[in-house]
Amino acid sequence: MIPGPPPQRGPVMSDVAARAGVSHQTVSRVLNGHPHVSATTRTRVLAAIAELGYRRNLSARVLATGRSNVIGVVAQNTTLYGPSSMVQAIGEAALGADLSLTVGHVAGYDATAASRRIVERLVQQGAAGLVFIAPVDAAAEAMRLVPGGVPIVTVDGLPEWQSANVSVDQYTGGLLATRHLLEAGHRTVWHVAGPEPWHGSRAREEGWRAALAEVGAVAPPMPRAGWSAASGYQCGRMLARIPDCTAIFAANDHVALGIMRAMAEQGRRIPEDVSLVGFDDVPEAGYFHPGLSTVRQEFAEVGRQAVRLLLDQLATGTSSAESALVEPVLIPRATVAPPGNQEKA
Amino acid sequence: MIPGPPPQRGPVMSDVAARAGVSHQTVSRVLNGHPHVSATTRTRVLAAIAELGYRRNLSARVLATGRSNVIGVVAQNTTLYGPSSMVQAIGEAALGADLSLTVGHVAGYDATAASRRIVERLVQQGAAGLVFIAPVDAAAEAMRLVPGGVPIVTVDGLPEWQSANVSVDQYTGGLLATRHLLEAGHRTVWHVAGPEPWHGSRAREEGWRAALAEVGAVAPPMPRAGWSAASGYQCGRMLARIPDCTAIFAANDHVALGIMRAMAEQGRRIPEDVSLVGFDDVPEAGYFHPGLSTVRQEFAEVGRQAVRLLLDQLATGTSSAESALVEPVLIPRATVAPPGNQEKA
DNA sequence: GCCGAAATTGTGAACGCAAACATGCGTGCG
DNA sequence: CGCACGCATGTTTGCGTTCACAATTTCGGC
Q1: 3-state secondary structure of A229
Q2: The Cα angle at residue A75 between residues B312 and A77, in degrees rounded to 5
Q3: Which of A28, A137, A145, A282 is most buried by its number of CB atoms within 10 A?
Q4: Largest Cα–Cα separation, chain A
């Protein structure tokens, strides 16, 4: 607890009641929109509330009712485009459903300790349900701390967790990206993968492999990047020296940016010499040099689905394992072209 | 409130007490680390807690004590790099200070209605203090809803709000950026400003003007962009047609990216024909083509200062108007060069 | 071996609210 | 004309915790 003087308490329900000349219960009824309150009483109470600047004490309310309309979100890496968009989307969807949102931001990549703590607090606060943005396994560990009866929805979780889950169909995303490059005429497609622990990395990789398999192409070696431009650049410096490498599917847009930079430094032009597809469609992707072809994830839809699944469980009281898949869409721009002549600068 | 069956309640303190063979008060003492509890009793209580999976009810605790160790953060546009970094930084700093954080994310650019609501909820939840990430005036409106006695810290707020505030010194940032271009030999520097409502936009603009004034340079007309690459691109298309425009200070890195794209399309090379400085130092700025010279804001430091100011107020019970300024630092990369020959492609 | 202080534990009340139950009044119907 | 029912409102109780205070035990010094 915070040291220091206790904050002075504001007016409470009985103050309002006294001022309006009614009982506190009538005030409660007005506040909760119960029937059987006369119009005149209601306005008197409302006036008293306004005059006193009364606001009801949520803790007392939650304590008395045993329910809260707060849902918790556990998120990591919220400076990344994907997770932050997800949180934003869930927030908007929750607002629409008249739910309040408490977001527990797990700092940094070290998830375990921090997320335990955040889950603990969310549960203690009486969150009615929890959304785990769980693109890595570490997030699942904290899920076990949640007492039974509290509904959970995961985002980007794994099927074996048996939770209600909503994911972007990253497998299909990888498929779309790779097919797009293949259809441009490339013999095969290289893939710079995302970090191994992320489920999305694995799914994109599988989509890539599947697309290659469809046309009988052999999968080239697969370098692995983080999600950053810096790591994409490192991989790109290698790939730029491989003449055969004319088509690349990058783990995400920022990795693609790093690759573009590395290619440029080696004098390999995009898309004339090397075709490239990213993932995410970050807002600035269209303004890379040249505009990046990529696969967009519909985060807003993910947020809506997550809230919907949570509300379902809340309403029925059952914990379903229903899951939703959101389809990504290919955004073709300027970084894909048929394989041309391989001229070095 | 959420409809549906009320969630079943877990074990409560008296359950633990019964199991451990003590009174509920002793359990409370153990939980709160009070002195005068014998070691054997403590371990018995702890064991009972573990066996029952007991977790204390925060609502009841807050109700009884009248204080919470939760601080609220009101933030907007959390998909933008700046705000999301800020939230992250505050989160880490709060964790270090053993505070819990509840983040209210205001969706989209329409701040007013949503932030009222979020503030209302944060106050009702009994937040001990509030951090407003208030880079625009709209955020200040909601500040008035906060009852007196609840400490407030603003981030990127205005002095006239009389609140404890911490800001990045964006004026100096603008100064640094402009001087850097001037020192490279440019006669004057153009500025593509950020959105008018943002305080940071205005401060950067003033820094720019001040730097120009230092050397007696006359300020060229100032186009205004949003924070996006798209709007930077629009401005850039204009600037690219102005031969005199050889040095540009962009509102932020993404705007700079849009400008780079527009310049490239017009065949104006960076930095040979046009020098460019951005703002923010987003992680991928170094991988733009070419690497973007920019001004970095130390968000982590901002977060630490914000939490420090809040704790000060919490401890003393007074609402100070102390403020902190965090100095930005210039990151020179490849987009600034002396003015050369203006050749068109 | 006894007294007082310190240590340890227990008891009752209060926090602010909502739900269940109780009350008083008017009104329609037989 | 009386009875039952519905409306508007008041009273009481309990949610799970902490706090103030009371009760009991332990211990050291003389």
Answers
A1: helix
A2: 85
A3: A282
A4: 89
Gap between the Cα atoms of B128 and B65, Å rounded:
12
Domains and CATH numbers, chain B: 13-56 (1.10.260.40), 70-169+299-328 (3.40.50.2300), 170-297 (3.40.50.2300)
List alpha helices for chain A, DSSP H: 13-20, 24-31, 39-52, 58-65, 81-96, 112-124, 138-143, 170-183, 199-214, 229-239, 253-265, 299-316
CA distance A67 to chain B (A): 6
Chain C nucleotides covered by protein, CB below 7 Å = 7-12, 14-20
Indicate yes or no: strand D within 7 A of the C-beta of A148: no
User: Residue B300, class by beta-carbon neighbours within 10 Å (0-12 exposed, 13-18 middle, 19+ buried)?
Assistant: middle
DSSP states along B195-258: -TTBHHHHHHHHHHHHHHHHTTPPPPP--B--SSHHHHHHHHHHHTT-TT--EEEESSHHHHHH
Structure-token match 């003449």, residue found? A243
Of A121, A124, A128, the CB nearest to B2: A128
- What is the spatial distance between Cα A166 and Cα A159, in angstroms, rounded to a whole number? 10
Average of pLDDT values for A32-52? 92
Q: Residue A310: which pLDDT band, with cuts at 50, 70 and 90?
A: very high
Mean pLDDT of B296-312: 92
**What is the dihedral sign for C-alpha A286, A288, A294, A295?**
negative
Cα distance between residue A66 and residue A213, in whole Å: 55
State how far the Cα of B324 lies from the Cα of B155, in Å rounded to an integer: 10
Instruction: Decide if B267 contacts A289 (C-beta within 8 A).
Output: no
**Cα–Cα distance measured from residue B189 to residue B211, given in angstroms and rounded to the nearest whole number:** 9
- How far are the Cα atoms of A255, B208, B259 from residue A236, in angstroms, in the given order? 9, 37, 25
What lies within 8 Å, CB to CB, of A230 at 6+ separation is A258, B283, B286, B287
Candidate from A120, A228, A264 with C-beta closest to B289: A264
Residue type present at position A322:
E
The three-class DSSP label of residue B171 is: helix
Q: How many residues does chain B have?
A: 345
Q: Tokens 């006359």, residue?
A: B218
- Residues B55-97 have pLDDT tens digits of 999 999 999 988 888 889 988 888 888 888 898 889 888 877 7
